[in-house]
Amino acid sequence: MIASNASIIVYLSREFEHSKTSRSLVNLNYVSYGLAQCALILRSLDIYNYFSKPQYFSDEFLNIIVDDVKYYQEKIEKDLPSWNYCPASSIVTDERLSYWDYQNMKGVNKANLYNFVGFILENVKIT
After folding, report:
1. Domain-located, residue 11
2. Closest CA to 79 of 30, 14, 22, 18
3. Within a domain: 30
4. Rounded Cα–Cα distance for residues 76 and 30 (Å)
5. What is the distance between the alpha carbons of residues 127 and 121, in angstroms, rounded to a whole number?
6. Residues 6+ away with beta carbon under 8 Å from 99
7. Can you give the residue range of the structural domain that contains 48?
8. CA dist., res. 64 & res. 29, Å (int)
9. Based on the number of CB atoms within 10 Å of its own CB, is 41 exposed (0-12), middle (13-18) or buried (19 or more)?
10. Predicted TM-score (pTM) of this structure
């Protein structure tokens, strides 16, 4: 019992160290943070336009964030071999993410993470 608990602790500590030093997980974090920033800025711009108020965020700031997300999106795909051992890495290459396209309304579509982020960035438009 003690030996099995010790082996589990050793395994978990190795995996924790590997995930802590993995650049691909850090890049994934940057992509998710950038997409959250894009959503906040676009929603703020929409509210400011609706109420005819001056905008707090500039269009240039949004463009910088979109460029950062594109940069880290590319890095995730390039770093794939370093975390390919993990079963969850298939989200980058396999079409496992479900989404609805409200323009075509043909039902649920599937995409991989790289294409999904690309779809979001394609629809970031400032009018």
Report:
1. no
2. 22
3. yes
4. 10
5. 15
6. 108, 109, 110, 111, 116, 119
7. 24-122
8. 17
9. buried
10. 0.74
The tally of domains found in the chain comes to: 1
Distance, CA of 110 to CA of 96 (rounded, Å): 6
Q: Considering the domain boundaries, does residue 114 fall inside one?
A: yes
- Residue 48 CA, chain-centre distance (Å), reads 26
Q: What are phi and psi of 110, to 5 degrees?
A: -125, 150
pLDDT tens, the chain, 127 aa long: 566 556 666 666 666 665 655 677 788 889 999 999 999 998 888 888 888 888 888 888 999 999 999 999 999 888 877 777 777 778 888 888 888 777 777 778 888 888 888 888 888 865 5
Distance CA 97, CA 90 (A): 11
The answer as to whether 4 is a domain residue is no
